[in-house]
Amino acid sequence: MRDNIKSFSILMNAVLLLILFIFLYAGKQDRRSAYGGLTDIAGKPVLTVYSENFLDGPVFEVAEIEPWISSMLEGHLGEESRNFSGKDLAVVEERLDACMDDLSANSLQCSYEVDRMTYSLVKKLSHITVRVRILYIPDIVPYHDLASFSAPADAAEYLAGEWDGGLREVWFRCSEDWTGDTLYNMGNAAEMNTADTAALPSSFNYMIQERPGEREKLSFIELIYSVDEDRLRARSQELKEELDAIAAEILSRGLTTERELYDAVSKVILERADYDHASINSIYSDNRSEEEWINSSAYGALISGKTICTGYAMAHKALCDRLGLPCWVISGNIKGAGHAWNMIRLDGKTYFVDCTSADSTGNSQYLLMDASGLSERGYYMPANQVCPW
Predict the structure, then answer these.
(1) Distance between CA atoms of residues 106 and 108, nearest Å
(2) pTM reported for the whole predicted model
(3) Which of 84, 146, 155, 187 is least surrounded by CB atoms within 10 angstroms?
(4) Distance (Å, rounded) from C-alpha 48 to C-alpha 34?
């Protein structure tokens, strides 16, 4: 009888040990999964797990929660953990929620690069371990790595370069005094000076963001072409090769002054391009063909041999860029009609070049005009025109 009782006791002890092992193992599994069930700031509640394990390290004050998470954002860090006093559990949760809500609503950096912020808590006796995770939008340029501008002309030159490099959507930071009109005028200038791309842009989208207390704004601008992207890429490569070849040929002549180089650029364009009267009639039409958009760029002036004013002006800028000559495309009007021409710098002074009018009239005076000559011939340049000088 005693042997039976002893055997039963051993069996019960074994069963109890097995139950205890299962309970402890399940607890470990739960704790492990607790870190996977992180709290979304838009979809609480917080998951609190009681555990015998917590992060080794110092215990921080709750007042350090906001600087901590802000520093994670500044450093583009994805995950960190810190200990806080266990008696502050409710305050910790409240401060975490408030901090994440505030950053989402008021931080330009957060609105630009963060997809989601989450946190989890693990509590043991007098300690709370908080793990914060910041999920960033994939492949995004960190906010503080974005280009920053105060002068719209600098932004326009930068943007034209990015667009000519094949990037269509560009984010950048700008001064707090910028408005939507500033961005729009800058975008107009930039698209006209995207001279290495083998098509005239058809439009652009833009957006400017600001937050209370921020000393800068965040801008987004997207250039749109009405040409198939593969076709545009191939034609643009062809154009760049032609531009390089023409520039190399001009440099091989041994010209010694900027005036000679400017004249050489104008002469090449006049030799290659004819004004496309048929295309000008469709410039504001919704039915404009891809080929017409292409021929309205430097490609039309230098390769197709037929273009409109934008093509003459873009070709002039693209060649001047390769020769190290200051040049900018101006968009305005002449005698009330929309028009494009170039602004250059020569001997410390600003002059204007209009290859379109020189080609149409045979008058070489259009190839070097000062401000008074521009006015006398009926040119009008809007006051909000963004120019580099």
Answers:
(1) 7
(2) 0.82
(3) 146
(4) 8
Token pair, residue 294, equals: 């292409």
Give the whole-angstrom CA distance, residue 163 versus residue 148. 17
Is 262 within 8 Å of 344 (Cβ atoms)?
yes
pLDDT at 13 over 70: no
Q: Are 137 and 171 in contact (CB under 8 A)?
A: no
Percent of all residues in the chain with a pLDDT value above 90, rounded to a whole number? 78
Residue 355 near residue 368 (C-beta atoms within 8 A):
no
Q: Which residue's structure tokens are 């920053």?
A: 148
CA contacts within 13 A on the Cβ side of 115 = 8
The stretch 314-318 carries a mean pLDDT of: 98
Q: Which of 26-35, 239-248, 363-372, 376-385 has the lowest mean pLDDT?
A: 26-35
What the chain holds in terms of domains, given with CATH numbers, is 35-136 (3.30.110), 143-224 (3.40.50.150), 229-380 (3.10.620.30)
